[in-house]
Design brief:
Layout (H helix, E strand, L loop, with lengths): L2 H29 L3 H11 L4 E4 L5 E5 L6 H13 L1 H12 L10 H16 L5 H15 L4 H16 L6
Antiparallel strand pairs: 1-2
Helix pairs in contact: 1-2, 1-3, 1-5, 2-3, 3-5, 4-5, 4-7, 5-6, 5-7, 6-7
Length: about 170
Amino acid sequence: MSQAAAHRFDVKKRRAARMAAAQTLYELDMVGGDVDPVLRTYLDKRWSVIALEDEDGDEVGEAELLEPDQTFLIDVVRGVTARKPEIDDMLDKALGEKWDLGRLEVLMRSILRAGAYELLARSDVPAKVVINEYMDVANAFFTEGEPKMVNGVLDRLAHILRDGAMD
């Protein structure tokens, strides 16, 4: 595999990790529990190959799911969990007076927390990349204005946490 192809593969694995992080954080928010068993279940059960079915429900093959970058996924989920009060405080301020983090839909809150964590703790990832990636995660689940909200909130945080540098 060429260096460029390897980089694209790594980018896709990180993208899958962000999607998985949002879903794992959602589950933790909904049912509670310790982070490591939820992560282990997620990694063991959710990334197996599944059967593809046609319109009649007949099996027509197998879908290959791209396994997420496990190290990155674990870092984001554990990082959000460990720094949740700090992250939630930042998000409440970035949301402004019109919105309250506790009243947001649980998945939206999970997406914002993961993005805020990356902006706070993962200076190796450019702010623009973080914002665009989590907008894509929001687009996968929402069809209204939620991706724009993700953009606005994470952009505000990026300007604060990264001293205005949007690299």
